[in-house]
Every structure is written in C-alpha cells, then in structure tokens.
Design a protein that fits this description.
Radius of gyration: 24 Å
Helix content: 40-55%
Bound molecules: zinc ion
Order of helices and strands: HEHHEEEEEHEEEEHEHEEEHHHHEHHEH
Length: 391
C-alpha cells in the first residue's frame, strides 16, 4: 500500500472519530445541563452549527433528546430548548450478597425507578444464576413506565480479576477464584462486573463531579469495604484489589474475623457485630441506644472507638476526605461530630482539618453504583453492544 493511501485511510478514520467524539461532547453537555439552546451548545463547545445540528438530530432519533420550551427572543426567531430525556433508558444493577440479591433499576439520571432486595443464598451454579436472571426480569417489569434496558451490571462482595473473568477474592462468600462464565451464560445482557465497594465509590464520584479525591467506606452486615478515588476515578491498584480496609488489623489479639485473622476492622465494625444479630436491625439498635440501654451504649462506644481508630489510619495514609456510605450512614449522621472528635483525639491528627462525612444519597449504593457504571460507559459511547451507531 502506498504512503498516500495510508494517509488517506488514517484521515478517514480520524474524521469518523472526530465526529463520534463531538457527538459524545454534545450529549454529555446536555446530560449535565439538562437543557440548552442550540446556540448555547455551539458556544460552549466551540463547534460549528452543522456539527451541532447533526448531533442533535442523531440523538433525538435515538430518543435521548427532545424539543423543550421556547425561550424569549433577543430579536428574530425564538430559540427552543433541547432537553435531555433521562428516562429514555433504564440500567439494572445487581448486588450479590451471601444470603440476598439487591436489584435496583435506575434511569439515566441515576434515580431509582424500582428496586428490591430478595433472599437468595449465593452458590455459583446455573440454577442460582437463572433465578437471579428471573428476579432481574421481574424487577424491571415492575417499573411503572416500561423503557428499554441498557444492560445489567453485577457487583460482588469481592475483588474482580483484571481480566474480569473471575472473582479473585471474596472473604464474604468464603471463596477465591470464582469463575464468572456461569453468571454470564445464565444472566442476560451482563455488560459490567465490578467489586461492590468500587461500584459504590464510583456512584459517589458520579453524583459529585466536584469530588476529586476521597476514600469511600461502605459498612455492610459482614464488615467494612472501601475504595480509593483519585482524580475523580476509582484507583484500581495493580491487581484490582485496593481499598481492602476492612482487614486493617486494629488488635492482633482481638476478635476473630471471617477472613481467618484476628482484630480486623470488619470484625469490630460489621453491622452483625454492632447489633449482635445475623440479620442486623439498625432501627431496633438505635431505638434501644436512644432509650438509654447501658449494653447498647457500651457497644456503641466500642464501635465508635474502633471506627475512629481505622479512620485515623486512613487519614494518615491518604491525607484526603473520607466518605462513609451504606445503610449505616443515615444512622451514623447524628454521631459524626463525636466520631470526628475521636479521630482528632489521636495526637498526630489533632491539628489537622479532617473531612469525614456520610453519603446518604443512596440506600443501595452498590447496586446503584454498578448500574451507573453502565450509564457512564453508555454516555461515552463505550458500552459493549450498545454503541450509538448500532442502536
Ligand atoms: Zn479480617
């Protein structure tokens, strides 16, 4: 092939990519803004009129945009708003737990349309995954307004291998190297597989684009998990296993942990240990605490002290804000000042500006977070099987 031809081909490819990139820029601008006039889009992105018009026609055809209200005219024709249709598609997120699955269906804004937690004991068999598939369909069908589904994201209580074909380590499910092919063969439309804590951390970043760096902590029935957010992205480490804060050792001679070790943060701060129950009932725990039960007060004191000990270690390691999510978050909120004070009691941290707060925007942060990873890839035109040109 001659040099001229090669250049010609490269030119053609790069023209196509430029068109795709500009299309994505138009879509994402409207996604963030909600609605804009054609002139706003042209000015904000520095694109030509025909490029913007072409992109708007394309996405209107896919049902992602629609014409909105007319705006007051500054002379001449009255401009019309173009609106993003957040309800054009749904995305489904599934959180796998030891004894339950949490299925949440969200729209493109991230608002939960319908969601439910089902009792189903994990086992990596075809029957289990067929049941999960049936529950996903049942949940999606319960949405008040039917919409096409982008796909399904599955989040595990364990880290996913770099190649995404197995759960490399799950202390909660008490397994290692769980192959994911059985799930993929029996659940329709699986487009994303994530470690639960990373999915939840992703959700926080997604909802707060201004959050550049943070450590995200999620407290679950069985322990504590986390993720590290650097420059608005999930930090993945070298083998996709960072943020395993739950097994930071707080006392080498302490409580036995489900990982086989002793004195881990998870052993002290799981909701099971807090409530001393296999099926933690936080409402009941905090009602007893507020009613002045001495046993509950003692347990809560211990809990806050262990939590503060771990947060102090994280603060010292990362020098960044800490966000605490999960179903404990709303209950913890009234005690945050107390918790911060306990962290600041460590002399080395006493002079520091500590940013430790809760994230209560979501009650199913893991299932919603993995569903949001699909929305994010979709808007980037990077979602397997759902490229804009193929829709
Ligand atoms: Zn442990």
């Amino acid at each position: 092939m001659s040099v001229v031809n090669e250049n010609y081909q490269e030119q053609a490819v790069s023209n196509m990519s430029v068109r795709r990139i500009n299309r994505v820029r138009v879509l994402k601008l409207l996604f963030r803004a909600g609605s804009l006039t054609q002139m706003d889009i042209k000015n904000q992105l520095g694109l030509s009129g025909p490029t913007v018009t072409q992109a708007l026609q394309f996405f209107t055809g896919l049902g992602l945009l629609r014409e909105g209200d007319e705006m007051p005219s500054s002379g001449g024709r009255r401009p019309r708003l173009i609106e993003f249709r957040y309800d054009a598609f749904y995305s489904a997120g599934v959180e796998i737990r030891h004894h339950h699955v949490d299925i949440q269906v969200i729209d493109l804004r991230g608002t939960v349309v319908v969601g439910k937690v089902y009792r189903l004991v994990f086992e990596n068999t075809a029957e289990y995954w067929q049941r999960v598939n049936a529950l996903i369909k049942q949940t999606v069908a319960a949405a008040p307004v039917p919409r096409p589904l982008l796909g399904v994201g599955i989040a595990f209580p364990g880290e996913i291998s770099v190649s995404k074909n197995m759960v490399s380590r799950s202390t909660v499910l008490a397994c290692r190297n769980i192959p994911l092919n059985i799930a993929r063969e029996n659940v329709e439309n699986v487009l994303s597989v994530e470690y639960g804590a990373s999915a939840a951390g992703f959700g926080v970043v997604w909802r707060e684009p201004s959050l550049q760096n943070a450590v995200y902590i999620v407290v679950t029935n069985s322990g504590v998990a986390g993720s590290v957010i650097v420059d608005n992205r999930i930090y993945r480490g070298t083998s996709n296993k960072p943020g395993a804060f739950g097994h930071i050792v707080l006392d080498p001679n302490g409580l036995p942990c489900f990982c086989g070790g002793r004195g881990c943060w998870s052993a002290y701060c799981s909701l099971r240990n807090l409530t001393q129950s296999e099926e933690p009932d936080l409402e009941r725990f905090f009602t007893e605490l507020r009613a002045g039960s001495q046993a509950h007060i003692r347990r809560w004191e211990d809990y806050l002290n262990r939590f503060a000990q771990a947060l102090a270690n994280i603060s010292l390691s990362f020098d960044t804000g800490i966000v605490i999510g999960g179903k404990l978050a709303p209950w913890l909120e009234p005690y945050m000042e107390d918790l911060r004070r306990r962290v600041a009691d460590y002399p080395v941290l006493s002079e520091e500006e500590l940013s430790i707060r809760t994230d209560t925007a979501s009650l199913s942060p893991i299932a919603e977070g993995v569903a949001l990873t699909l929305v994010s890839s979709f808007l980037d035109d990077n979602l397997e099987g759902r490229h804009f040109d193929d829709l």
